[in-house]
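Two quick folds needed for the group meeting slides. Do the first one here.
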Amino acid sequence: MKNRETAWRIFSNELNASVLEIQATEEKGPSYVVTPLGAKVNRVLIAGTLTEKENVGGEEEAMWKGRIQDVSGNYFISVGRYQQEASRAIASIEVPCFVAATGRVKLYTNPETGKTYITVRPEQIVKIDEGLRDAWLLETAKQTWTRLNNFKAASQDPGLKAEDLVKKGSSPAEAEGIIYALEHNDEVPDSMTYIKTLQAALRVLLPDREIDFGLPEDVASMPDEPEVTESMDIQDGHASKRSYGQLEDIILDMLSELDRDGKGAPRDELERRAEAEGISSIELEEISNILMDKGLVYEPNLRYLKRI
């Protein structure tokens, strides 16, 4: 069975600035969008405030368009008949609210204007609470900082190859994306754009949102955060109100219970058990990352998750 593509965590301004695409080389093979910092993206996990949605189709065949706002701008989402689970979910979600979505990215170029557009086609979209949004925000900031540093180091050494980046700690996918971006981008992206985004993210996460990190910032370039009322996750039409701390405890217990042979908990079993407990795959992925960051779990391989 073929493994799913990694769902990257990327702020909207980096994703929307992407103009490069790696087309599939075989039938039904994956295509990739390459961001300015070299992320080789097929799928993303995004989170933010769903600020608007509209059914541009009809009652017989819904086609939803929407915007999800993060600290740097907006993701544009499109949900059609091939994303039935996401279509049912978005129909029941009222705006504005915090949401998370996993889905594939699609790049369109207008042949007349040459302008490039990026849309996300969610496979799943769920309502989340502020704690899960903040957890996503922190993880995305960390990954953006790592990408920024790796890309900057590679851009200063023109002779570097993908295998050299792997030796320095990048994954093969990260290394390939960085080399592709360096070879095909007309100019090196402005680091300050992404540093400002990181500053905006940290201001949301820290108690004093007016804290000054001493970085130049065009305040008008960062969107105001919409006011969001208390958010609850929706599973099968039922609202459940659980903090991500409670979800961590539940998943840790599941990992212990499913680790029957010392190899760890099989991911497919873990997903089924989590779903039965009303925990979506998006929440499971996000909480798993939090637990790995805390050093409480690790991945022996792609198919298992093990408690330490």
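Then this one, please, same format:
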Amino acid sequence: MLHLLLAAAIATASPAANAYAVPGRRISVDGHRLNLVCQGSGRPVVVLDAGVGDWSPAWMPIQQRLASRTTVCAYDRAGYGFSDPASSPRTSFAIARELHDLLHAANLPAPYVLVGHSFGGLDVQAFTELYRHDVAGLVLVDGTAADVAIPPAVQSLMDDQVAAVEKCARAPRPDCFNLLWGISSQPNNGVTPALVAAVKTQARKPAPYGAVVSEMQNLTESQREVRTRTGSLGDLPLVVLTATTHGEDQMPPALRASLLQFEPVWRRAHMRIAALSTRGRYLLVRSDHYIQFDRPDVVIDAVNTVVFEAR
């Protein structure tokens, strides 16, 4: 969620990124096609869900490495990447239902280990609430919590971002690219020229901006959906990773102060999620919001641990 506030800059390239520069499997779900990029083999299947404004390349630092042990699938939510847009409001329950249908249509066997970054963390919590028997484990990578309100100063800036994205949805411009693709601002992001070209092609279309706007405008509803259904997760293998910072050093002083006050609130919310399972673990990671880029080994260890326990 907060990664939309970061500036864009292209860094070092890795050929592994080219897997995301072309469509994977495009599977029809509820009248539109969703793109699925799978690597590796074995069970349980690990499913990766990115944050707002991101798509499958958000998992470049870890997907290939995780795939040495089991099947790992990243996908593009409706409107992003090589997926078609959807007409329904982009709430986490709607997204979770589409993901469930996608995995079944792709003949990927349940139960799954779900991994969600940022807003994707709210989506995989929604999936777990709707399809508990299809979930073998859960990893939240600085995921959005259902019971936390965004501070007014941050909400105001996010509203400004949504307004800018709405303009891009109506008439995409070259500079709209910077609003769309959060991972290009991350260190060691592995971006290749082929992937940049694919993203810039996407950035000329209104669909991804429409997806961002719908997800952000429905964020409160997505939180309400998950919050009203959340109960005990029993002994579900669960790891909750929390970043120590969220771009405060890039913010104006007033906003920086608001974010710093929000950090302990964010951490306590993640602790509450971890406490929902008797096998839940919470880990504070010295990292910015994109833990999978700053500290990929931590995310890989968390996912491999949950995969091992799920087996």
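Slide caption for protein two: The longest helix spans residues 253-274.
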